[in-house]
Every structure is written in structure tokens, then in C-alpha cells.
Amino acid sequence: MEEGTLKSPSNCAGTGTVDYGDTDPFQWDSREDCQVRQILDRVADKWSLLVIALLENRRLRFTELRREIDGISQRMLTVTLRSLERDGLVKRTVHPVVPPRVEYELTPLGGTLHATIRSLVTWTEAHQEEIAAARSAYDAREAEASAEAGALR
User: Fold this and answer.
1) Which helix (H) or strand (E) covers residue 37, if one does?
2) What is the pLDDT of residues 81-115, one digit of tens each?
3) Backbone phi and psi for residue 2, each to the nearest 5 degrees, phi listed first
4) What is the 3-class SS of 45-75, one letter each residue?
5) For residues 74 and 63, what is the distance between their CA atoms, to the nearest angstrom?
């Protein structure tokens, strides 16, 4: 570690001398010991987003979640649910029946996060055509550049 670098997870602000005010692009340090970064990594990964979205105002069993989330493996769903439970966003309830029935639901804290996710989904839906057009234009430019580079050889 460089001299003068703080290792404290509670201090994740950039160490530069430029003051960006409220728009500081370095407000979430990329160091692994930064709590803000760890939380963002957890709640912003695609599996967590999908689980939180599916649990809005309802309880679901593990098998129901797995059936609803296309492409998730049993192991990844288990890891995701455990992490969300550890972070206090999901509550796991085991019912004492045979075979055991386990249900998952959002905690009140997880419910507050759902509103933020809903805003992100709304933004995505509103801009999906613009994004698709930008992707197509980029892909066309890349294909053209590759063709030109191939012609020069």
C-alpha cells in the first residue's frame, strides 16, 4: 500500500485535491474494503435485481424463484439469496413440514430498495429503443473498421 493511503473502510472518498462537489466521480472508491462499493456490488448485480423485483409484495419458494429467473443456476440463486439475507434485504422462512418448505420475501429494507429498482426498470423501458439504435450504430462502425483493417492487410 502506498504511503498516506488510508485502509479504513469507513473512508472511501477519493484522495485527490480536486473538489467535484456533489458530482464527484470518485465518491465510490473501487477498493474492495469500501462499504459503499460492497453494497452497490451486491444490490446492483443482475441476479439480485431480479430476485428483489420478483419478491415485490409477495413470498416465493426457492423453486418458484428459479423457475421465474431465466438462466440462473441453483447454486447462483442460493448464493444470491444468502447474500441478500445477510444484507437484511430478504427474509427466509422455513416452515416445519415434510418436506421442508422455505419461502423468501423482502424485508422492509428490501422493499425500500425495490422502489429504486422500479425507477431503473422504468428508465430502461423508456430508453430501450435509443440504446438498441446506439448499439446497432456502434456495431456497424466496428464492422466497417474491421473490414477496412482487413483490406489494408
Assistant:
1) helix 35-43
2) 999 999 999 999 999 999 889 999 999 999 998 88
3) -70, 150
4) CHHHHHHHHHCCCCCEEHHHHHHHCCCCCHH
5) 9
